[in-house]
Specification:
224 residues; alpha/beta; Rossmann fold; two-stranded antiparallel sheet
Length: 224
Amino acid sequence: MDLAKQYNDFAQKFSAIHDEGDNSNRDNRRVFYEHVDFVKPGMKLLDLACGDGLDLAYYKKLGAEIFGLDASDKLIEIAKKRNPGADIRVGVFEHIPFGDETFDVVLSKYAIQTSANMTPVFAEIHRVLKPGGIMMYLVTHPFRQYFEKKELRADYFEQKIVDSNIFNKSILIKEPSHTFNEYLDEFLFENFDVQFFKEYWDAGAEQIDGKKYPGYFILKAKKR
């Protein structure tokens, strides 16, 4: 799965609609912002999968010194125009191109689930966070990915590439499925103190067979 190509192919369309209307990221963005009250002026903040930089602009208003990373160079172009002067780079979560103990905060929204293995991602976040730094991420809920397998005998534990139709099926995203075991792995509990966890329904996601189930969850943790 070529993550950069996937997002490059719909970068302009995604940027134009992802914060517009009821069936968008507007609701989950509002929810996520409610939980970033710990961000204070002067903090160094990294947004993993910063996309078109809309969230970075919000974090800058909170007074944070903003940094961004995304696999899509086309989305990075938009993000840099929206946030002139910010250090925004092309890269992947398994190899974050910043030094050890650089950031006070690492945030990520609908992003790290695109990696097949969570442990290297958590290890890199841990590496770039200062001691006592905060990681908070929002990811596609494993239940949603289970239903998105759309198989009569779907195996929750088998990792497969699933089709996620978003924004009234106007954009198709392919992502590897995950279990809660992967998001709550040994590395997380050995190296972070979990401070917050909650599941949410997502208006922007396709509802399979009319079922109502969580579309995403948010987890906040502090580096030991």
